Amino acid sequence: EVQLQASGGGLVQPGGSLRLSCAASGFSFDDYAIGWFRQAPGKEREVVSCINPDDRSTYFSDSVKGRFTITSDSRKKIVYLRMSGLKPEDTAVYYCAADGSYNLIHALITGNYNPPLHEWQYWGQGTLVTVSS
């Protein structure tokens, strides 16, 4: 059974940092892309960042580029999202997802990932991040 466990959310002041973790189990970690998504109240879910653990190819949305980093630990089967320079507009429930489809992984490797064109296979529960003073 595929399981994705997101953790690390909390309350942080603007400008602060936070690290989210996504612990994966039930599938071959290096054969799947892992993505972080978020959904703010009243807004649609949006992709934040993705990684292909096999070759460390990554994607970042324009809204977080330069502030967030994504890394993977294949031994522990965990993907980390390090968030810095947090803004109130980063407040949302953050979810991690996994997908092993060739098209997605190929898109990440070639730098052609287009979020609206892809529905991810597996989802974990969310972790709430609140950025407020």
Write up this protein.
The chain is mainly beta and 133 residues long. It is built from one helix and eleven strands. The strands form two sheets. Strands 2, 4, 5, 6, 9, 10 and 11 form a seven-stranded mixed β-sheet that branches. Strand 5 and strand 6 (57-60) form a beta hairpin. The N and C termini lie far apart (40 Å). The mean pLDDT is 95.
Task: Chart the SSEs and their pairings.
Layout: E1 3-7, E2 10-12, E3 18-25, E4 33-39, E5 46-52, E6 57-60, E7 68-73, E8 78-83, E9 92-99, H1 102-110, E10 122-123, E11 127-131
Parallel strand pairs: 2-11
Antiparallel strand pairs: 1-3, 3-8, 4-5, 4-9, 5-6, 7-8, 9-10, 9-11
- State the end-to-end CA separation: 40 Å
Based on the structure, what is the oligomeric state of the protein chains? Answer: single chain
Please state the CA-atom Rg, rounded to the nearest Å: 14 Å
What proportion of the residues form beta strands (DSSP E)? over 45%
Class of secondary structure makeup: mainly beta
The tally of helices reads: 1
Element-level helix/strand string = EEEEEEEEEHEE
Residue runs with pLDDT of under 50 for 5 or more positions:
none
Please give the largest β-sheet: 7 strands, mixed
- Please estimate the helix content: under 10%
